Structures are given as C-alpha cells and as structure tokens.
TrEMBL record:
The modification N6-(pyridoxal phosphate)lysine is found at residue 195. Belongs to the trans-sulfuration enzymes family. Pathway: Amino-acid biosynthesis; L-methionine biosynthesis via de novo pathway; L-homocysteine from L-cystathionine: step 1/1. One of its GO terms (cellular component) is cytoplasm. Pfam families: Cys_Met_Meta_PP (PF01053). It comes from Weissella minor. This is Cystathionine beta-lyase. Its cofactor is pyridoxal 5'-phosphate. It comes from the Bacteria.
Length: 379
C-alpha cells in the first residue's frame, strides 16, 4: 500500500470485537480476568489498551516499522528513547534540537550521569569527531528546529553504526509523509504527535517506532514502567487525524514552498531558511531523502526592522508556539520555543534573537501572502 492508502487501511483500523469501521474508544482502566493467574491479553490500560494499540499499529505502518508506541507527549517519547541510555553513557545530538529536548538532556539526563556533545549533525565529520568510546546514541532532528538544517540520515546512521551506537531520528518536522528514517537505516524514529500527526492543535502526544525487536522490548518496558502512555481518547483522536495526514501535509508542503519563494524575493526579508529553496547543502540532501520539503520555515527580517511589531500585527498567522496544525502560526524562538536554551549557546548555534519561525497552515495561499505582505508593509 502507498502512504495515502496506509493512513486509511494500514495497521488496525477496525474494531476487532464488532467490525466497526472506526476503532472503538476503550475507555477503561482495567479488564475483568477470566481466571486467577491466567495469561490474559489485557490486564491494565497502562500496559494494554486496544485503542492505543490501534494507533500504535498505524504509526508503525506509516513509518515502515514493526513496533509502534504511543506516549502522552512528544517529550515523553523523547524521554523513553533516552531512557535506553545508562549512567556513564555518552550521547551525540544536534546543536539546534528542540529546546525541550536540550533541556531534558542538559538538566535531567546530565544529572543522572549521561554526558552529551551537541554538534552540527548536517556535518557527518563532526559526528565522527565527537564519537567517544562510551557513545551509545546519535540523536538527529531533521529538518531541525528552528533553522531547518537537513542531516543526511543514511550517512549519519553509518557513522553511528560503525561505533555501535543507535541512530535515532526525531521526525516531527517532516512527518512520515515526507520522510521515513527507518528506510534510511535509522534504528528508532520518534515524533511529537502534537504537530502534524494530530494536525489540529488540539492534542498532545508522542510516538516511537522501531523495527528492532530488542529495542522494542526495552521501549515497551520503559513505557509500562514510567507510565506516560497516551490515553484512549487521545489515541482515537490521533488515529482519526492520521486519515487526512497525506492530504494535509501535501497542502502544507505546497503552501510553504510558495511562501518561501515569495518571501525569498521580498525586499524586507534578509534570509529564508527552508529546505525546498535550491542553492544550499540542505536542499541537496532534502531532495534525496524527503518526499516533500514540509510546512516549516524560519526567516530573518532586514536589519533594524521591528520583529515584535511584525509578529503582533498579523491577522491570519497567530502568534503561538507549536506547529503542524491546520492553522498558520508564527513565533520568535528566542523568546518562545527556544527560551530554555542559554542565549550564548543559542547565538553560537545561529539562532538569532530576531529569528521568526513560521508554521505554514493549509489556508488559501493568497490569504497567507496578503497577511504577511500587510505585516511587512507596516514596518
Ligand atoms: C522537534 C520536536 N520534538 C519534540 C517536541 C516535543 O513534543 P511535545 O510538545 O508534544 O512534548 C517538539 C515540540 O515542539 C518538537 O518541536
């Protein structure tokens, strides 16, 4: 099945008990047992829930993996993956990963004795140079947040595997419609389902998918033991949203490409970060490993223009954190999504105070252009 069919028919899409064409919401915490000490398939919803199993199976199908796991947030999914690491282990990750991921590694895991090196993962030599004897994981975010840098997943994975480290990809920005990292050799793909997978800015969720049985056993144990599972209601909502993922992402891709080209030629815009614009190494890799370039971009206005005034004066684009919903959002990473990264680290990694990040929605493209045009004209 191709992707557009898999979102409708992949994994468990009917209710096995009744044949209902839509999976039922099994809103239960526990299950009646037929015998004491028997081997019941369902015991307690933290461990087993049919609605969660259904969305997990669809996500596994969409990412071309064997095992899917649903969590209560993207951060819970990141945490589950990083719980594969132990005290004394070393992690290599991108130097412009999502601020919450950086905070987890820098403030929580570091305290537990897990060290890290943050590098530009688009530079495969930098990954190689950062390798230590105890490096157990290479964590990639591509395209990255907020600079939309693209890492060559196959090349980075090769380096990781040469050192017996796991290659993990945060696929939040691309979504499995645009990119399937397991096909490029990655061991684990994870995502914040809050973004494109949910797609309507109304749920928080996270997913992990792998084809490695041993890794899957460990993630299952972590999911059960830590308990940050996705609820039956939210599982249902995500599965419902996934059915339109292909349609939505196709439009996100189209709108973002058109806006990126238009902004790139606008006199008040100094720089556009979008992997679909030719002329950068990001573009060269993206066109090889992605089906579409995605709905995310960042821009820098010309020096001296008032970023605050610009983002506050838009009408269609809403000033808000998050991304991947049907509605267009705009934000300033330095003040909002990436405020948890110390300023000097942020600047060193190229995230300027004035950088503006845009999540392009699926509205009419002319309305989106007009809104940005009036915002820029007012400066
Ligand atoms: C790339 C990326 N990974 C992970 C997360 C964390 O996801 P959540 O907010 O669902 O916990 C985010 C959130 O913005 C993100 O952008």
């Amino acid at each position: 099945m191709d992707f557009e069919t898999k979102v409708i028919h992949g994994g468990i899409q009917n209710d096995p008990a009744t044949g209902a064409v839509v999976p039922a919401i099994y809103q239960t915490s526990t299950y009646r047992q037929q015998e004491l000490g028997g081997d019941a398939p369902y015991e307690y919803t933290r461990g087993e829930n049919p609605t969660r199993f259904a969305v997990e199976s669809v996500m596994a199908a969409l990412e071309n993996g064997k095992h899917g796991f649903a969590f209560s947030s993207g951060m819970a999914a990141v945490h589950a993956v990083m719980t594969l690491l132990h005290s004394g282990d070393h992690l290599i990750m991108g130097n412009d990963v999502y601020g919450g991921t950086f905070r987890l590694v820098n403030s929580i895991l570091n305290e537990l004795g897990i060290t890290y090196t943050a590098v530009d993962t688009a530079d495969t030599d930098a990954i190689e140079a950062a390798m230590q004897e105890n490096t157990k994981m290479v964590y990639l975010e591509t395209p990255s947040n907020p600079l939309l840098h693209v890492t060559d997943i196959a090349a980075a994975t090769k380096v990781a595997h040469a050192h017996n480290a796991l290659a993990v990809v945060d696929n939040t920005f691309a979504s499995p419609y645009n990119q399937t990292p397991l096909d490029l050799g990655a061991d684990i793909v994870m995502a914040s389902g809050t973004k494109y997978l949910g797609g309507h800015s109304d749920t928080i969720s996270g997913f992990v998918v792998t084809s490695d049985d041993a890794v899957a056993d460990q993630i299952k144990l972590i999911q059960l033991s830590i308990g940050a599972v996705l609820s039956p209601q939210e599982s249902f909502l995500i599965q419902r949203s996934l059915k339109t993922l292909a349609l939505r992402v196709e439009r996100h891709n189209e709108n973002a490409m058109a806006l990126a080209e238009w902004l790139n030629n606008h006199e008040k815009v100094q720089k556009v970060y979008y992997p679909g614009l030719p002329g950068t190494p990001d573009y060269e890799i993206a066109k090889e490993q992605m089906r579409g370039f995605g709905g995310m971009m960042s821009i820098e206005l010309q020096d001296g223009l008032d970023t605050k005034k610009f983002v506050e004066n838009l009408h269609v684009f809403q000033l808000a954190e998050s991304l991947g919903g049907v509605e267009s959002l705009i934000e300033v990473p330095a003040v909002m999504t990436h405020a948890s990264i110390p300023r000097e680290v942020r600047l060193e990694n190229g995230i300027k105070d004035e950088l503006v990040r845009i999540s392009v929605g699926i509205e009419n493209i002319e309305d989106l252009k007009q809104d940005l045009a009036q915002g820029l004209d007012a400066l």
